[in-house]
Amino acid sequence: MAEERFTHIGDITGEKPLLSFKEIKIKVPWGHISGKWYGSQNVRPIVCIHGWMDNAGTFDTLIPLLSRHLPFLAVDLPGHGLSSRIPDGCYYNSIDNIFVIRLIMQQYNWDKISLIGHSMGSIVTFAFASLYPDKVDLAVGLDALKPHQRAIPKQIETIATRMEEFLKEDERNRSDSEPPSYTYDELIDRLFVGSFHSVNKDTCQYLLARNIKRSKLDSNKFYFVRDRRLKYYNYQIGNQDLVNEMARRITCPYLFVKANSSTYFEEKKFYFDTLSVMKENPKFELAASEGTHHFHLNNPEKVCETINTFICKYRPQDVPTSKL
Questions:
Q1: Is 0.90 topped by the overall pTM?
Q2: How many angstroms from the chain centroid is the CA of residue 141?
Q3: What residues are labeled active site?
Q4: Do 91 and 85 form a contact (C-beta atoms < 8 A)?
């Protein structure tokens, strides 16, 4: 008997999704990448990439407000949502998600890709557009412009600490015991507090659905199923000089939206340094939006027009292909 998993909040509450979608699985060597495909499957979609410890549900409120002339594919990165975890004994690195995007392109035989990324997904979008400037025809980054910088002594210390914690979580993953479970309302509170109040309580449900599973010990409770090793993944992608050189390689139309109530996740000087390089690209656009780090989820109506204008400017028509 297949284990019960939830694809969207309606699987728990009975509510209909804000916009209908098709749940898909993309084969990869270690299992599959899950995703939510909105719209026509005869047109190459805009691929949406979530942030750290989130999942495809982060785009549940935004995608219904975006232009319908193009489809959207919101994916769960490895270990997140409904996607397969990497094998036991392997280590998560942020840069590995570049490989995931290439596998998705290979699976569907795409020569080009359009990307929208939030937080870690925005950093992945930045890196991919730099490594493959000829393969990206449009990119949108939400709130995290670039790989973040830390003082070098701190980086060394962090790598060692995270590795030790990762080893512990890797061992725990092999245990048959069920993780701690909570009522649904308790999960809402834990996610709200865990996001440092970035995710509103009334939008936590969109992230929870693909991140939880009903307890076998108490049917009134649930537990988190995202890979616990992700808490200690390696997020570092080079120093500031390397990041700026990456920025110089980005030539595609690129929209970056910064939330006005969010932090910079690093010293501001590093952000503005790379931003000045990004502005050398004549197709780079900078915008601001009200809200916290998860502004696209909490207040999508405040950013959808900016994104729609950008999308329609650079992908104004749908281009039918053979059925994907």
A1: yes
A2: 10
A3: 119
A4: no
Q: What's the chain's average pLDDT?
A: 94
| pLDDT, tens digit, 9 for 90 and up, residues 269-302 | 999 999 999 999 999 999 999 999 999 999 999 9
SS3 of 255, please? strand
Contacts of 38 (CB under 8 A, 6+ apart): 19, 20, 21, 45, 63, 71, 72, 73, 74
Q: Check residue 93 and report its DSSP letter.
A: B
- Least Cα distance to 167 among 91, 226, 96, 99 occurs for 91
Q: What is the C-alpha separation between 223 and 190, in angstroms, rounded?
A: 11
Contact 249, 239 (CB under 8 A): no
Q: Give the mean model confidence (pLDDT) for residues 76-85.
A: 97
Contacts of 27 (CB under 8 A, 6+ apart): 107
Exposed e or buried b per residue across 251-276, where buried means at least 16 C-beta atoms within 10 angstroms of its C-beta: ebbbbbbbbeebeebbeeebbebbbe
Alpha carbon of 241 to those of 10, 145, 146, 159, 273: distances in Å?
A: 46, 15, 12, 20, 10
Residue among 274, 293, 172, 317 at smallest CA distance from 231: 172
pLDDT tens digit sequence for 144-189:
999 999 888 888 898 899 999 999 999 999 988 899 999 999 999 9
At residue 319, the pLDDT reads 56
